[in-house]
Write a structure and sequence with these properties.
With 220 residues, the chain is of the alpha/beta class. It has one domain: Rossmann fold. It has an 8-stranded mixed β-sheet with strand order 3-2-1-4-5-6-7-8, sandwiched between helices. It starts with a strand and ends in an 8-residue tail after the last helix. The mean pLDDT is 96. Bound molecules: NADP nicotinamide-adenine-dinucleotide phosphate. The site of NADP nicotinamide-adenine-dinucleotide phosphate has 23 residues, from helix 1.
Length: 220
C-alpha cells in the first residue's frame, strides 16, 4: 500500500487527501501545529488517514505533497525529504506571500526556488491550476470527451512519470511542461491558469496555451 505524505492540511492538502484515499492510497498529513489539531479532519477522512508532524510526514510518505504557501526562508523538513519526489502545489501570490525580489526579477521561478530549498529532493510542480474544491467534480475517466488535463513541471523525469500516473488515477490527463524553469507558463494570470478557473482545458488546448503564453511572467 502506497502512503502519500501531505504537508499542509488546508484547502489543497485536505482535498488531495480525500482524492488519494478515494483512489486507494493511505495518507499521513500535517499542518504547522501539533497533530491533535487535525483530529476533526482525520475523523472525516477515515481509517486510511492519520495525522503527524511535518517531519514525520516527510519520513513516512513514499512521496510527499507540499500544499503550503512558499516562504523565502525554507520551512519544510529538507533532511527528511531527502531523495523523495515532492509534489509542490504552491502558487506565488505576492498579496498573500509578500514580494520575493528573487522571483520578481525573473532570476528563477517559484518552483526552482522550492528545488533550491530542497536540494536533495525531486521537486515537481503539480495541481497548481485546478481549484481544490473542483478536484472531485472535474475528474473524468480516460477517454471521456470532457476529461481535462493538468500541467506538471520538474527537472526529474521519474517525478513526471509518477505524477502522470497519479493524475490519471485521479481522473486527469497530464501535459509535461518541464523543466522547472518553464513552470512560469502555468502561474497565476497565465492563460492556462485563467482557463482553469473557467473549467479547465483538454490536453490539446493545454499544450497549445503553454506554447502561446506570450512572455516570461517573472516568478511564477
Ligand atoms: N486553494 C486552492 O484551490 C489552490 C489551488 C492550487 C494551488 N494552491 C496553492 O497551494 C498552496 C496551499 O494553498 P491552500 O489553499 O491549501 O492554503 P491554506 O488553505 O491556507 O492551507 C495552508 C496549510 O499549510 C499549513 N502550513 C503552513 N506552514 C506550514 C509549515 N511550515 N509546516 C506545515 N504546514 C504548514 C497550514 O497549517 P496551519 O493551519 O497550522 O497554519 C495549512 O494547513 C498555496 O500556495 C496556494 O496558492 C491553492
Amino acid at each position: 500500500m502506497t502512503t502519500i505524505g501531505i504537508i499542509g492540511a488546508g484547502e489543497v492538502g485536505s482535498q488531495i487527501a480525500r482524492k488519494a484515499i478515494a483512489t486507494g492510497y493511505t495518507i499521513v498529513i500535517a499542518n504547522s501545529r501539533v497533530p491533535e489539531t487535525l483530529t476533526d479532519l482525520i475523523t472525516d477522512l477515515g481509517p486510511s488517514a492519520r495525522a503527524a508532524t511535518a517531519a514525520e510526514v516527510a519520513l513516512t510518505g513514499d512521496f510527499v505533497v507540499i500544499a503550503v504557501p512558499l516562504r523565502l526562508a525554507n520551512d519544510m523538513p529538507a533532511e527528511e525529504l531527502a531523495g523523495k519526489i515532492v509534489i509542490d502545489t504552491n502558487n506565488y501570490m505576492p498579496g498573500r506571500d509578500g514580494r520575493f525580489p528573487l522571483l520578481d526579477s525573473g532570476q528563477m521561478t517559484v518552483h526552482e526556488l522550492r528545488q533550491v530549498q530542497l536540494p536533495t529532493s525531486k521537486v515537481i510542480k503539480a495541481f497548481t491550476h485546478i481549484q481544490a474544491p473542483t478536484l472531485f467534480p472535474f475528474a473524468r475517466p480516460q477517454g471521456d470527451p470532457d476529461r481535462i488535463a493538468l500541467a506538471v513541471s520538474s527537472d526529474y523525469p521519474e517525478a513526471v512519470e509518477l505524477v502522470t500516473r497519479l493524475q490519471d488515477q485521479f481522473g486527469y490527463d497530464t501535459v509535461d511542461n518541464s523543466p522547472l524553469s518553464e513552470s512560469w507558463r502555468t502561474g497565476p494570470g497565465t492563460s492556462v491558469w485563467n482557463q482553469s478557473l473557467m473549467g479547465g482545458q483538454d490536453r490539446e488546448a493545454l499544450a497549445r496555451n503553454l506554447v502561446l503564453e506570450p512572455r516570461r511572467q517573472p516568478g511564477r
